[in-house]
Design brief:
Distance between the termini: 108 Å
Mean pLDDT: 87
Number of helices: 2
Low-confidence stretches: none
CATH superfamily of the largest domain: Rieske [2Fe-2S] iron-sulphur domain
CATH topology of the largest domain: Rieske Iron-sulfur Protein
Radius of gyration: 38 Å
Keywords: 2Fe-2S, Disulfide bond, Iron, Iron-sulfur, Membrane, Metal-binding, Oxidoreductase, Transmembrane, Transmembrane helix
Largest sheet: 7 strands, antiparallel
InterPro entries: Rieske_2Fe-2S, Rieske_2Fe-2S_sf, Rieske_Fe-S_prot, Rieske_Fe-S_prot_C
Enzyme class: oxidoreductase
Strand content: 25-35%
Order of helices and strands: EEHEEHEEEEEEEEE
GO cellular component, one term: membrane
Protein name: Putative Ubiquinol-cytochrome c reductase, Rieske 2Fe-2S iron sulfur subunit
Number of domains: 2
CATH architecture of the largest domain: 3-layer Sandwich
Length: about 190
């Protein structure tokens, strides 16, 4: 039973409630039934909340924005006959080669392990710094471990007269695709 307070400023405590068996039950504690009831509702609400978050996440899918595989490479007159232009190697990983009768784009990726070869103008060849593969000016492999020639890319002329290079379409020498339309431009 509760003792009366000796301090006149503190109100006396309420008498303890009795449970079904007549035993005193403290006023400040929850019963086991109350605890599990609240825990069950808390679990249900947490599940409902997380499910709602997952559902809302489906409404905003993750999208990977990649740059366009096509780019404009200037006019044909910008390129010198018999030269390899390294202007686009850093940004697009592409060489533009202009010969007497044609212009084509070569992907600057070694066919051995994908390193970026260097154009050695004095030697007239592409040389891979990783494992020493060598390629002629038109992309044919002649030394080192590279198993096949370099890949050519689709080229065309835009309505404004500029060269358009499409890196999504490659032409392979071993399949005889270097003579197909789109693999070069007639100059």
């Amino acid at each position: 039973m509760a003792q009366p307070s000796k301090n006149p400023n503190i109100p006396p405590a309420k008498p303890a409630a009795k449970d079904k068996g007549g035993k005193e039950k403290p006023n400040n504690l929850y019963s086991r039934r109350d605890f599990f009831s609240y825990a069950g509702w808390a679990g249900f609400m947490a599940t409902l909340g997380l499910s709602s978050v997952y559902f809302l996440r489906l409404l905003f899918p993750r999208v990977l924005f990649e740059p366009s595989p096509k780019f404009k490479a200037g006019k044909v007159s910008d390129y010198t006959v018999g030269e390899v232009s390294t202007k686009w190697v850093k940004d697009q990983r592409v060489w533009i080669v202009r010969e007497e009768q044609r212009l084509y784009a070569i992907l600057a990726r070694c066919t051995h392990l994908g390193c970026t070869p260097l154009w050695l103008r004095s030697e007239g060849k592409y040389k891979c710094p990783c494992h020493g593969s060598g390629f002629t000016m038109d992309g044919i492999n002649f030394e080192g471990p590279a198993p096949r020639p370099l890949e050519r890319l689709k080229v065309g002329i835009a309505p404004d007269g500029e060269i358009v290079v499409d890196k999504s379409k490659v032409f392979l020498y071993e399949k005889g695709e270097w003579e197909e339309p789109g693999s070069y431009l007639r100059t």
